């Protein structure tokens, strides 16, 4: 078991300080994904039930004003379903940029080493190259995994809001 922390520390050391920022972004991203997962699993049904109750409590379902009220209720459901999704998308977009920052800082280290030593010794430059490539890889992996979840969340939000709209249409004719 002591092998894992040592290998993690070695990985973080080889990746440089930017890797810690990327790791923090990954934690934020996964916290937001889990928050949305638990929202849809635990709270969304109550939000939908409350919205449908608001609509059912209305006597008027056919006037222009009733349609505005319906649009407002649907908008409130959409807003709650989309909460934190924009922040999640921002973190997903930020991850490759942080990886690129790691690439640049790693390459600056390589060039500094070349300037100080006056040579292009591959062994001496390997730490800087590692510091340049590891954050890039980490940023891309985090971004790709987050992108898959944000696409799924967007689809889920559209489906759930469409269900509410459809249920209100059915109730409108009643």
Short description:
The chain has helices at residues 3-15, 17-57, 64-81, 85-117, 122-172. It is an all-alpha fold and 174 residues long.
Question: In words, what does this structure look like?
Answer:
The protein has 174 residues and is mainly alpha-helical. It is built from 5 helices and no strands. Helix 2 runs antiparallel to helix 3 (64-81). The radius of gyration is 25 Å and the shape is rod-shaped.
List keywords for this structure.
174 residues, mainly alpha, 5 helices, 90% helix
SSE arrangement:
Blueprint: H1 3-15, H2 17-57, H3 64-81, H4 85-117, H5 122-172
Helix pairs in contact: 1-5, 2-3, 2-4, 2-5, 3-5, 4-5
Question: What separation lies between the terminal Cα atoms?
Answer: 64 Å
**Measured on Cα atoms, how large is the radius of gyration?**
25 Å
Globally, the shape reads rod-shaped
pLDDT under 50 segments (min length 5)? none
The counted number of beta strands is 0
> Which range best describes the helical content: under 10%, 10-25%, 25-40%, 40-55%, 55-70% or over 70%?
over 70%
Tell me the series of helices and strands, N- to C-terminal: HHHHH
Fraction of residues in β-strands: under 5%
